[in-house]
């Protein structure tokens, strides 16, 4: 483990020394949009007047990343990773080592009115806007439980345009919020070497039976799906490919952003910011929907049990069930402590999808 951390630390120091030379190399620019979500519009001024009625308008969230490849950094990273990871996926390394295009103007097209915004200091796109229900219904296309909106984002002054998706999450119904790593995808987050191997090489592997069970829940309960993960959004294109190949239900993604100046990828992956990020997103879903109920899926290796237990104590009537993946029986004792004050019928464990029940109630 120390060797891995030293390698990454060495790369960070060396990278700082070569940033000034980047202008000597041509770099490819890309824009990725991460599937997001839309909720019914909330207005504090009229909240009391429509307390029992859904608004006709929607609040739509847009998220993405505008970046350019850093070929020097990518070459150095591949050389360092070669001692640990074989059959390195060059594209994944290129995304991880890229430079965000900060404070660049990007415009959302394909809507009734063009909306422009700027990327942040890391090149990330984070925006939300309001749209009348009539426009939303006219823009809906097939995809997900209730359909989705498709839109385009273009970079000002660049010949770049990318299509994005927004999935509707209405006030009523059932949603499944699922972790990805070691919940539906085998990652091995407790091992630095396993994380690096499973991130930068090979075909992502699914936890057996999970896609089948998720598809069953989607059709049986008409659930929407939302993938909440500690994984960085640089991995989104590869995670989407994985979910599509394994036929997981369509849905929104909620991820963090990794910057090259984080201490290391592994520390980023297991840092406390992961707890804060997941908690914020979970609260958003509960606060932006009035009576929608939720089923939460996570794994025992990170802090999913603690996060879900905290959320349950705030919204006990709206959480139908919590499921935690526990590959080994000797790890279950921790859950008895974490869920001590939560009714037994409200949480359960599984090793793979075939352990999960066909129905919840």
Automatic annotation (TrEMBL):
<protein>
    <recommendedName>
        <fullName>Phosphatidate phosphatase APP1 catalytic domain-containing protein</fullName>
    </recommendedName>
</protein>
<dbReference type="InterPro" id="IPR019236">
    <property type="entry name" value="APP1_cat"/>
</dbReference>
<feature type="domain" description="Phosphatidate phosphatase APP1 catalytic">
    <location>
        <begin position="174"/>
        <end position="325"/>
    </location>
</feature>
<dbReference type="Pfam" id="PF09949">
    <property type="entry name" value="APP1_cat"/>
</dbReference>
<dbReference type="GO" id="GO:0008195">
    <property type="term" value="F:phosphatidate phosphatase activity"/>
</dbReference>
<dbReference type="InterPro" id="IPR052935">
    <property type="entry name" value="Mg2+_PAP"/>
</dbReference>
């Amino acid at each position: 483990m120390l060797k891995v951390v030293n390698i990454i630390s060495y790369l960070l120091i060396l990278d700082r020394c070569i940033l000034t030379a980047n202008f000597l190399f041509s770099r490819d620019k890309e824009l990725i949009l991460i599937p997001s979500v839309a909720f019914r519009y909330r207005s504090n001024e009229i909240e009391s007047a429509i307390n029992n009625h859904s608004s006709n308008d929607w609040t739509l969230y847009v998220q993405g990343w505008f970046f350019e490849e850093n070929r020097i950094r990518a070459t150095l990273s591949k050389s360092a990773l070669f001692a640990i990871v074989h059959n390195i996926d060059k594209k994944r390394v290129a995304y991880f080592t890229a430079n965000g295009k900060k404070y660049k103007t990007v415009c959302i097209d394909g809507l009734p009115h063009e909306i422009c915004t700027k990327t942040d200091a890391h090149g990330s796109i984070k925006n939300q806007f309001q749209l009348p229900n009539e426009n939303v219904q006219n823009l809906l296309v097939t995809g997900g439980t209730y359909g989705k909106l498709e839109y385009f984002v273009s970079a000002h002054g660049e010949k770049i345009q990318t299509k994005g998706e927004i999935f509707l999450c209405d006030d009523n119904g059932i949603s499944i919020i699922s972790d990805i790593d070691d919940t539906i995808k085998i990652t091995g987050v407790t091992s630095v070497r396993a994380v690096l191997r499973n991130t930068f090489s090979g075909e992502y592997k699914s936890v057996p039976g999970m896609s089948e069970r998720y598809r069953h829940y989607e059709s049986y309960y008409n659930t929407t799906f939302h993938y909440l993960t500690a994984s960085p959004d640089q991995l989104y294109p590869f995670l989407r490919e994985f979910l599509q190949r394994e036929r997981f239900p369509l849905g929104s993604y909620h991820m963090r952003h990794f910057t090259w100046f984080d201490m290391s990828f592994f520390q980023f992956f297991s840092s406390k910011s992961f707890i804060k990020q997941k908690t914020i997103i979970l609260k958003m879903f509960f606060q932006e929907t009035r009576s929608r109920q939720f089923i939460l899926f996570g794994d025992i290796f990170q802090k999913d049990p603690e996060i879900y237990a905290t959320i349950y104590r705030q919204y006990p009537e709206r959480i139908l069930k919590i499921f935690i993946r526990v590959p080994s029986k000797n790890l279950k004792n921790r859950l008895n402590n974490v869920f001590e004050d939560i009714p037994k019928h409200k949480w359960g464990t599984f090793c793979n999808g075939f352990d999960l029940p066909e129905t919840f109630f």
